[in-house]
Amino acid sequence: MSTEDPEALLDEARKWWTTSIVDIHPGEIAMRGYPIEQLIGRITFPEMIWLMLMGELPTRAKAQLLEAALVSSVDHGPQAPSIAIARMAATCGPGLNGAMASAINVLDDVHGGAGQQCMEIYYEVEAEAGADGDLAKAAATVVARRKEQGLKYFPGFGHRFHPLDPRAPRLLQLVSEAADRGETSGRFAVIGAAVEDALSQGRAKRIPMNIDGATAVVYCELGLPTELGRGVFILSRSVGILAHAWEQTQQGGRIKGPQAKFLNYTYDGPARRDLPEPDQRG
Fold first, then answer.
1. pLDDT tens track for 59-111
2. Among residues 167, 237, 178, 173, which one has the least CA distance to residue 209?
3. Which of 110, 124, 122 is closest to 196 using CA atoms?
4. pLDDT digits (tens, 9 = 90+) for 6-42
5. Which GO BP terms, alphabetically (predicted)?
6. Which residue ranges make up each domain of the chain?
7. Beta-strand (E) ranges in 182-267?
8. Other C-beta atoms within 10 Å of 263: how many?
9. Kind of pairing, strands 34-35 and 22-25?
10. What is the CATH number of domain 59-257?
11. Is the torsion defined by CA of 63, 236, 124, 208 positive or negative?
C-alpha cells in the first residue's frame, strides 16, 4: 500500500480493529445495532449479556434460564480459593480492581473450569448418540472412554463438601419446566442424568450432579459454546468476588495470610543444621 494515498491509508487504519459488537460515533452508541438508549431500562442484564455474546436478543425463556444459572454460581464461601484470594488481596492494598483481578486469574482449568469441561462431555454424548440414538448408551460409552483416557474425576459430578449440591436440583427443575412448556428441548437434562447413571453404575452410592453439571445442562440447552460456558461462570463468580473483596475492605485487616496466625504450617525439610565452613564444603 502506498503511503502517498491518504484515503487508502485512513481506510487501512480503520480496519485495524473490526467488530460487530458495538458502533460508536459522537453522540451515538449502538450495541449489536440497537441504540443504547433503547436498551437501557428495557432489557435485563442477562439479556444484555446474551445480546453481547450471541449477537441477538434471547427469548424471555432463555434469558430466565441464563439468569438462574448466573445466580446459582455467584459464591461458595471464603474457603473457595478465588474468594479467599480476593479477601487476602484486599488486605494487601491493591484496591477492589486488584483484588478482583487476583481472584479471577485463578479461575482456570482446576478451579473454575469444571462447567466448561462438563459441557464438553455433554456435547460429546450428544455427538455419540446422533439425532435419534440412545442417549443412555451414548453416555455409558463416553464415560467408559473418558475413564480409559485416564479421567479420574468427572467434572460436574460429586462434591467434596455437599453430599447433594442444593443448587443442582433447582436448576434442573427449571430446565424441566421450560422443556414442558416447549421453551427448550430438555435433551441435555436427559444427557446429564444419563451421565450420572453411568458414573454411578456399580457403586453403593450415586455420584450426584453438582452445580457445574447443572449449569452445564443449562448452557448446553441454551446452545452456548463450551468456552462461553466458562466465561459466563466467571461473570457470575465475579459478583461473589466483588462482595467478599468489599466486605474485607470494610472489615479492615492488614496482610492477612491464608490461615490464622496461631495455626502453623507443616515443615518437612531438613532439621536445623550449621552451615559448614568454606573449606569443608568440598
1. 999 999 999 999 999 999 998 999 999 999 999 999 999 999 999 999 999 99
2. 167
3. 122
4. 888 888 888 889 999 999 999 999 999 999 999 999 9
5. carbohydrate metabolic process; tricarboxylic acid cycle
6. 20-58, 59-257
7. none
8. 8
9. unpaired
10. 1.10.230.10
11. negative
